[in-house]
């Protein structure tokens, strides 16, 4: 169980140079959840993915170290999101037009492994959130946020009409929920600033959103 949980909570990073294969893989009963992606070059080739061109040619062309494409994240979502594994060859044609011809590029992907069966619970500010599993099972916290998201929450209507629509979230919500609930059959916690601190302007109504599996 502990090994499975550490794999699920871990943030994975993978990278591949032009002409190499990138391969993402998640453990049993989980699927890939792409967090972020970059394709291009922002560090010189002696630091990452050396140039494949002959040295004489490489010295003639000035390497572009401010090169990236905007389609990288969407392409990774198309190729890998919600699958247990994915593999493909990295090259500029995959991402549309080449942002810097003559410069060797690379792909970096950040992803997590999300449980196939998971539950989501929301508690409005100052309400109690209670999680529980069946007798032989225990709670595994996947994510937790406390604060205010841009779109708000349907369960907790936004009533402060004079307040700006901003996003503000506690940096410690996940650690606190893991400490309070991880590996237990049931647990409860108040969605309060006493527990999580106040990441927002005073007066902004917040909510706690927890994704977990049993």
Question: Topology, please?
Answer:
Elements (H helix, E strand, L loop, with lengths): L1 H8 L2 E6 L3 E5 L4 E12 L13 H6 L6 E2 L3 H9 L4 E5 L16 E10 L3 E6 L3 E5 L7 E9 L19 E2 L3 H9 L4 E5 L2 H4 L10 E7 L1
Antiparallel strand pairs: 1-6, 2-5, 3-4, 3-6, 7-12, 8-11, 9-10, 9-12
Care to give the gist of this entry?
The protein has helices at residues 2-9, 55-60, 72-80, 173-181, 193-196, and strands at residues 12-17, 21-25, 30-41, 67-68, 85-89, 106-115, 119-124, 128-132, 140-148, 168-169, 186-190, 207-213. The mean pLDDT is 83. With 214 residues, it is α+β, with helices and mostly antiparallel strands.
- What's the CATH class label of the largest domain? Mainly Beta
Q: Report the CATH architecture of the largest domain.
A: Sandwich
Q: Count structural domains.
A: 2
- The unreliable regions are none
Helix content: 10-25%
The assigned structural class equals: alpha+beta
DSSP strand tally:
12
Going by CATH, what is the homologous superfamily of the largest domain? Rhamnose-binding lectin domain (RBL)
- Give the distance, in angstroms, between the N- and C-terminal Cα atoms: 11 Å
Largest sheet: 4 strands, antiparallel
Task: Give the integer mean of the pLDDT values.
Answer: 83
What percent strand? 25-35%
Order of H and E elements: HEEEHEHEEEEEEHEHE
Count of separate DSSP helical elements: 5
Radius of gyration, rounded? 22 Å
Strand adjacency order, main sheet: 1-6-3-4
What spatial form do the alpha-carbon principal axes imply?
Answer: elongated
Under CATH, the topology of the largest domain is which?
Answer: Jelly Rolls
């Amino acid at each position: 169980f502990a090994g499975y949980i550490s794999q699920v909570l871990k943030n994975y990073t993978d990278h591949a140079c032009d002409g190499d294969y990138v391969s993402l893989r998640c453990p049993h009963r989980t699927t890939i959840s792409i967090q972020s992606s970059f394709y291009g070059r922002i560090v010189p080739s002696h630091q990452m993915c050396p140039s494949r061109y002959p040295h004489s040619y490489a010295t003639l062309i000035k390497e572009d170290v401010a090169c990236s494409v905007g389609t990288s994240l969407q392409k990774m979502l198309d190729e890998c999101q919600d699958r247990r594994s994915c593999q493909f060859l990295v090259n500029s044609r995959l991402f549309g037009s080449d942002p810097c011809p003559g410069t060797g590029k690379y792909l970096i992907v950040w992803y997590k492994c999300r449980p196939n069966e998971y539950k989501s619970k929301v508690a409005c500010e100052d309400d109690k959130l209670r999680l529980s599993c069946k007798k032989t099972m225990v709670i595994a916290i996947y994510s937790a946020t406390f604060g205010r998201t841009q779109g708000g929450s349907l369960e907790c209507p936004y009533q402060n009409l004079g307040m700006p629509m901003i996003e503000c979230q506690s940096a410690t919500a996940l650690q606190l929920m893991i400490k309070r609930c991880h590996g237990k059959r049931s647990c409860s916690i108040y969605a309060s600033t006493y527990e999580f601190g106040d990441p927002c302007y005073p007066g902004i109504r917040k909510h706690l959103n927890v994704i977990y599996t049993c």
